[in-house]
Amino acid sequence: MRWIVRDSESAVLGASDFRVEEARPRDGTVLFVVHGDLDLHSADELGDLLVGAVDRGASSLVVDLADVGFVDSQGLGALLRGTRRLGAGEGRFRLVVPAPEIRRVFEITALDRVFPLDATREQALAGAIGEQGEPHHG
Amino acid sequence: MLARLAVASVARAVPLSQEELTDLKLAVTEACGNAVRHAYPSGSLGEIELDLVPGVDRVELVVEDHGAGIELPVVEREASEVGGMGLSIIRAVVDELEVGPGAEGGTVVHMTKRTARPGSGRGRRGRPEV
Lengths: 138, 130
Hints:
The structure holds two protein chains of two kinds.
Chain A: E1 2-5, E2 19-26, E3 29-38, H1 43-55, E4 60-71, H2 73-86, E5 93-96, H3 100-108, E6 117-118, H4 121-127
Parallel strand pairs in A: 3-4, 4-5, 5-6
Antiparallel strand pairs in A: 2-3
Helix pairs in contact in A: 1-2
Chain B: H1 2-13, H2 18-39, E1 48-54, E2 58-65, H3 72-78, H4 85-93, E3 96-101, E4 107-114
Antiparallel strand pairs in B: 1-2, 2-4, 3-4
Helix pairs in contact in B: 1-2, 2-4
């Protein structure tokens, strides 16, 4: 089976319904709920949002990837941008990754050692550390 | 996205496990992403040819561009950097990988993924250094 893509970017064009919802469940903590594919065409958007939140004072980020169908290296790079901007504080950056096929991308790149991966949003928020340096409790 | 849709169409012809399907989508996306970033930089566009050849126990994937070409030492160096995780991912999810110049310039990425019926117990997981 052969496909010829005339417009090279179309080969990796992300789903048109990519969008990110943002919420502040607690002072200092920003929750991003990502929908669609996280790839070459959407990674910069998410990375900019993560970096922007930190620059505006967020001390803890939770990124929910439960509704993400695909993550490639560019998507991983966007998440790394966010965690690097945030600094090395343990528990300050958490990912919700319930799907095994998405979790596998983190495993094969060994980034599951870098990002705390939670199965549910509740677990991620509970594990995140807020502005006061105290763990969440629900 | 088109590349992943192409892989999905192969999955309708060949029995693939969910993990194998995910691996193929990852490999093709990363190969196409490399072509976009390296073969046609600075927003220029060009053709990418994608061949998916399902076999009895394998799927071959060939991604060819007609762009600037990738210097292999550069590719190897980038493999340890954030922006160069693509080839590391490909190496982890396929069984054979060849990257070379195309017949008329550009770059050809030839990948082979051996497949097995779901539940056969065969699997391959790699953890490349990043």
